[in-house]
Structures are given as C-alpha cells and as structure tokens.
Write a structure and sequence with these properties.
The protein is α/β, with parallel strands linked by helices. It has three domains: about 230 residues, 4-Layer Sandwich (Purple Acid Phosphatase, chain A, domain 2); about 70 residues; about 35 residues, no CATH class. It is built from nine helices and 19 strands. Helix 8 packs antiparallel against helix 9.
C-alpha cells in the first residue's frame, strides 16, 4: 500500500505572507495533489507543524489552508493521520491544547495524535508519537518499550541529526536515537533538512522558507507500507536564489525566472559598473520580490580580493554563527553555546 507522508508545512508562516502562500500553492497544485491522484493515494501521514504559530493564526491563512489543502484532501476521500508538533501545541509542556484539534474539527477524515497512538497502515503496525514534552515524556518512553509496532512516525528533536544543512543538533530535547532501535524504520518531522542514519529518517519539509533552505532538496514522500521503502518526491519550485555576477553580459541575461523571488546577487567580478547597473535593472524590471547585493569593498582591477571570499559568501546564518563560536576563545561548552544560538535564531525566524 502506498502512503503519502508530509511534514512541517507551517501554514500561516511569516504572518500569513501572500508571497509565500502563493509559492506554497504551486507545490500543492503542480506536484502534491497530482501525485496523490496518479498514485491512487488514500492515506496521508502528516508528521507535525502543519501550522506555524502555536499561539495564533490569522483568518486569511486559515481560510487559505482549508480551501487549498484540507478541503481538497476531504473531497478526495483521503484519510489523514496528523501528529501534534511543537508549533501546533499551545503549551510547551503538554499537547492538550493544539491547533489541529481546535481548528479542524469539521474534517471527519482527520485522525489526530496528541501524544501517542497505534494504527495499522496496510499490513504494518505503526506507532505515532506527538511532540515529546515534560508531561508525556515518561508515558511515551513506556509506550516505546511495550509497543509491537515495527514502524514509528513522530515529531522528534533528536541529538545527532542535521537541523539545517551544515548544523547538527547537539542537545535534542527528545533524546537520542538509541531508544528507537527496536523499530525497523523511524520517520520524523521537525528538522526541515533531509537526513538519516539508516534507521531514523528525517524526511524534510515541502518548500523553502528561509535562506538556510536555498539549494536544499524539498518535497514530500511516498511510503510503501509493504516494503517499508520510501521515495522522495521533490518540489522543483524555489523561492530563494543566488546569482553570481562575473562581468555577466546583461544583454543575454534572462531575468524572467526571478520574478517574485528573493535573490542574492553575489558580485565576484565587476569591471564595468555601468553594465552592472543595467544587469541589476533587468532584475528590478521583472519584479524580484527582494534583491540583496553582496560585494567586497576591497577591489583589485575589478576582482574581489580575498582567498576565502567564495567560501564565506555561501555560508548561511547558522553556519556563520557556529563558525564564530568555533573560532572564539570562550571557555564555555561550545556545543551548548551553539545550541542556544540556534534556538534563538529559530525563534527569531518564527517571529518574522
């Protein structure tokens, strides 16, 4: 039996940004729903963080999510097993009050998992786990020990896996993967970057949301309940782009793919400033949503000086912060410091 698996959709993100929800819609209309129809999918597993803000959602975002996602799943007759994630649990220490339960009660095709539940998908017995917190930690630990399920679907913050590309979680609040060794497969949401160790699979979220996601594969997954194999279905649509300018002729530059996109223009060589201005004008003319130009203040015959410029220009925010910590002389535990910085950065992104 083929099952669709999706996670960390974050409806309502960036305060209900129309730009981003139009971008999300292209994924659902062009990739997600056509794949479900083509594969004859009747079951969907949502591994958490369906909505972005655990305390509130604006009415436009809720209407958008119902019209473009939940109504379509209901009308297609698809059963949705949905897990409470940290972004959909109102309290930090329990999952009792959550966005899914409060906002989606009219959907009879939705099966909600607050803390833990077991269901048979195809012929495979599966354990579903909600966000692990102080209130449910002990009972979930007991359930993991006693369950006869062979596959686990969850929303885990485990130590040792990549939160973002290039940054590994050092102090996950869900513990380590050791307690999940009894399962044949463990699939999890929460981290948006795809990674695995052959046992635990972080499947990644459907689309780019921040600069950390640029050039990192996104999409959803088709899971086979008979073979336990899973196939990623990539999302070809992007929001963030890097353009490298090296005296690139503006006359032949096609700016049309960048309409409505967020762009970093990284200048490696600019020997003709007027041609560069015309290059930038072409980007503005097609309607880029946001354009940031990155160039060195130190020039030598039109070339950027500095052997390490190429490496540093491609670093994302987390990588830069981690490198700063690694190169500092602080006597504190650097792993803990990086963990705190990452948590602050993620919270700042949620507020944006």
């Amino acid at each position: 039996m083929k099952v669709a698996v999706i996670t960390d959709q974050h409806f309502g993100m960036r305060k209900g940004s129309r730009l981003f929800h139009d971008y999300f819609k292209k994924f659902y209309e062009d990739i997600f729903f056509p794949t479900l129809e083509r594969e004859g999918i009747t079951t969907l597993i949502d591994m958490g963080d369906t909505f972005d803000n655990r305390r509130s959602i604006d009415l436009w975002s809720l209407e958008w999510a119902k019209t473009n996602y939940f109504d379509r799943l209901r009308d297609m007759g698809i059963t949705v097993y949905t897990i409470v994630g940290n972004h959909t649990a109102y309290f930090k220490n329990n999952n009792s009050v959550n966005t899914i339960d409060l906002l989606l009660r009219e959907y009879s095709n939705m099966v909600l998992v607050r803390d833990h539940a077991e269901y048979t998908i195809g012929d495979t017995r599966c354990l579903f786990l909600g966000w692990i917190n102080d209130e449910n930690r002990a009972k979930i630990k007991r359930k993991i020990k006693s369950t006869k399920s062979t596959v686990c679907f969850a929303h885990l913050e485990l130590t040792g896996y990549q939160v973002y590309r290039g940054f590994t979680q050092q102090n996950g609040c869900s513990g380590t993967a050791d307690q999940f060794q009894k399962f044949d497969r463990v699939y999890s949401g929460h981290y948006h970057h795809r990674s695995n160790d052959g046992k635990v699979f972080y499947l990644g979220n459907p689309y780019e949301m921040f600069w950390n996601d640029c050039d990192d594969a996104r999409g959803f997954t088709i899971w086979d309940s008979d073979t336990l194999e899973h196939t990623p279905i990539n999302n070809p649509h992007r929001m963030f782009y890097k353009i490298y300018y090296e005296d690139t002729p503006y006359q032949i530059f096609d700016a049309s793919p960048y309409t409505g996109k967020i762009v970093k223009l990284i200048v490696r060589r600019k020997s003709k400033p007027k041609d560069f201005e015309k290059f930038v004008d072409k980007l503005h003319a097609v309607g880029v949503e946001e354009l940031k130009i990155i160039e060195s203040a130190d020039w030598n015959n039109g070339y950027i000086v500095g052997e390490d410029f190429k490496d540093k220009e491609d670093e994302n925010t987390i990588s830069l912060l981690n490198r700063f910590v690694d190169e500092s002389d602080i006597s504190l535990d650097k792993s803990r410091v990086k963990g705190i910085i990452t948590d602050i950065y993620r919270r700042a992104c949620e507020v944006e």
